Amino acid sequence: MFKNFILLFVMYFMLMSLSAQSVIGKWKTIDDETGEEKSIVEIYEVEGKIYGKILKVINAKRKNPLCDKCEGKNKDKPIIGMVIIDGLKKDDDVYEGGNILNPTNGKVYKCRLKIEDDKDTLQVRGYIAFFYKTQYWKRVSE
């Protein structure tokens, strides 16, 4: 009986540590220039690919903002509910191979996500060729 308890205890903590390393979940976006909290993004997986959509805009002055600078299907659409991370795949400890949309300027960049050592910080990098910008988002506890 005691051995079973120890085994269950060890398995529980192994599963907790694995789930804590996942990008899946809710993240508070932080502007890399101002340090301002901007939104809550939910990152999820569909058929082995990673996606992210905006759940909430934190700035109370922007109640239901539209993506007026976006092009194509996102033009003038509500930012809340918009998929901004599209089609990333896991490669070792990073997720890449997809895109990220910046609804502030309407531009789409190649994207790379990586969990930092503290497990509650997500490194979000958008780039074109050798030029990139990095933000650090914070995990939102449920």
TrEMBL record:
The keyword Cell division does not apply. Residues 25-139 form the DUF2147 domain. Residues 1-22 form the signal peptide. Keywords: Signal. The keyword Membrane does not apply. Transmembrane segments: none annotated. It comes from the Bacteria. This is DUF2147 domain-containing protein. It holds the Pfam family DUF2147. InterPro entries: DUF2147.
